[in-house]
Amino acid sequence: MFPGRLHASGQGTHLRRLRHTGRLARDYKPKPVVYLAAAGAFDLEPGETMMVAAHTSDLAAAAAAGLRTAFIARPDEYGPGMGETTAGTTVDVSCASLLELAAALEA
């Protein structure tokens, strides 16, 4: 089970921190303070972090806040052929899946 693996790996705590950055920032995406709060939650500079998303608007806002960006295509997100297949903004990495992103980051 995925949550069990997260707990065993110790990464669950990190994901919980990220999940609550909107509360930390007392605001919502796409405002820069939300992205900066996510980086700050880990004592990192924005350029040391990466926003991974399937939505151009999220990626553009994160890049404007200084984060690195990765686009993951979700072509069927809103129904067959109804999702974004390419980033509508400049990104650092563009991939078809999280596994492909992991491989790209390891290279």
Give the SSE layout:
Blueprint (H helix, E strand, L loop, with lengths): L1 H8 L2 H8 L1 H5 L6 H9 L9 E4 L2 H9 L3 E5 L20 E3 L2 H9 L1
Parallel strand pairs: 1-2, 2-3
- Supply the CATH architecture: 3-Layer(aba) Sandwich
Average residue-wise pLDDT: 83
The CATH H-level homologous superfamily: HAD superfamily/HAD-like
Report the order of strands and helices. HHHHEHEEH
Please give the order of strands in the largest beta sheet: 1-2-3
Low-pLDDT residue spans: none
* Count of folded domains: 1
Profile the largest sheet: 3 strands, parallel
Helix share bin = 40-55%
Query: How far apart are the first and last residues' alpha carbons, in Å?
Result: 28 Å
Can you identify the CATH class? Alpha Beta
- Write down the Rg: 14 Å
Count of β-strands:
3
Category by helix and strand content: alpha/beta
Broad shape: globular
Number of helices: 6
The CATH topology is what?
Answer: Rossmann fold
Q: Assess the beta-strand content as a share of residues.
A: 5-15%
Pfam family, one: Hydrolase_like
Keywords: Hydrolase
Protein name: Haloacid dehalogenase
InterPro entries: HAD-like_sf, HAD_sf, S-2-haloacid_dehalogenase
What does this structure look like?
By secondary structure, the chain is an alpha/beta fold. It has a single domain (2-106), classed as 3-Layer(aba) Sandwich (Rossmann fold). Helix content is 45%, strand content 11%. It contains 6 helices and 3 strands. The chain has helices spanning 2-9, 12-19, 21-25, 32-40, 56-64, 98-106, and strands at 50-53, 68-72, 93-95. It has a 3-stranded parallel β-sheet with strand order 1-2-3, sandwiched between helices. The longest helix has 9 residues, at 32-40. The model has no long low-confidence stretch (mean pLDDT 83). One of its GO terms (molecular function) is hydrolase activity.
